[in-house]
Design brief:
Blueprint: E1 2-6, E2 15-19, E3 29-38, H1 41-48, E4 67-75, E5 87-91, E6 100-104, E7 108-110, H2 117-121, H3 124-137, E8 145-148, H4 154-165, E9 169-174, H5 177-185, E10 190-193, H6 199-206, E11 212-217, H7 221-229, E12 231-239, H8 252-257, E13 261-264, H9 267-273, H10 276-288, E14 296-301, H11 305-314, E15 320-324
Parallel strand pairs: 8-9, 8-11, 9-10, 11-12, 12-13, 14-15
Antiparallel strand pairs: 1-2, 3-4, 3-6, 3-15, 4-5, 5-7
Helix pairs in contact: 3-4, 3-10
Bound molecules: NADP nicotinamide-adenine-dinucleotide phosphate.
Amino acid sequence: MKAAVIHELGTEEAFHYEDVEDPQAGPRQVLVRIKAASINRGDLGRREGSYRGVTAAAKLPLILGWDVSGVIESVGEEVRDRRVGQKVVATLASGGYAELAAVSARGTVPFPDTLSFEEAASVPIVFLTSWFALLKVAGLQEGETALVHSAGSGVGMAGIQIAKYAGARVITTSSSGDKLDRARELGADDGVNYRQEDVLDRVMALTEGGGVNVALDGVGGENLAASIASLAPLGRLVTVGNTSESPTTIDSGLLFQKTLTVHGFTLAGQMVRGGVMPELARIMDLFGEGKFRAIVDRVFPLRQASEAHRYVSEGGQFGKVVLRP
Ligand SMILES: NC(=O)c1ccc[n+]([C@@H]2O[C@H](COP(=O)([O-])OP(=O)(O)OC[C@H]3O[C@@H](n4cnc5c(N)ncnc54)[C@H](OP(=O)(O)O)[C@@H]3O)[C@@H](O)[C@H]2O)c1
């Protein structure tokens, strides 16, 4: 099969589109003919060697790709609940930037016909991250207010929809008015342009000085400090990433005076704890019911993985960028 392979960690030029041996499905695995693979921000860090997450210690040569969609080509002898020809999404430790992947049958979920392969591949990692962070970790409740940063990011785009689904008021942030308009179409109630306005001042004005109950922050740095300062008493922050690649100073006085909770969350850590795939099945059901929309900003051919990574790192996208083998 063809794959985008990394032999040496580094810049976007690290990808080599080349022939590699076809994977073989083990007894509890299925072989998936990949139709689309999504790019996640963590892929950029793994490509350069700066990623510190659970799946950081990948061996070279490395094929990136945590979530894909495709068609099951064969099933292992112990697999009972998947069949050849079935359309599924799959989560992987790596190996999605390729034409085929052998994955645990348990790591696959069928998806509704209303989604294209590109749309389906764009869902698992970012929707699961925001789903767990907002609903399971922060315990966002109906009637509360959520601050969901980076409307244009995969996690932000998903988080806005999930917080609305939970019945919350949603304030989001973005680098442009166009992206904030698109966020409002997805259900965001208010938008803050962080290039033009002070996020903390604006969030406090929008909440009449009260602050938000939950903040979902993948930006880090000064943004994380603003997220904490914007919390109402008993507020919960979930930090899921550091797109800004900056350190943060936390004012501990704010934490105890307002009885705040700061959670760190990674989906990889949740995979170790378990219980992820039933939630993905639930999310896919909600797509089938029309509750959520998949937003694919751009599709690149797999052979252009370098160009796709460069595009993602520039930060102009709204939603997901997907590779098509
Ligand atoms: N913990 C987990 O399990 C988990 C899982 C997935 C992702 N993450 C993390 O969550 C964050 C978002 O991930 P993603 O895959 O959704 O990201 P992404 O789609 O690549 O996000 C890109 C967007 O981030 C925003 N952004 C904010 N600051 C930026 C900066 N300094 N440079 C470039 N873009 C910036 C921009 O949106 P605006 O213009 O709207 O601001 C941009 O469009 C990342 O930190 C990622 O590592 C964590």
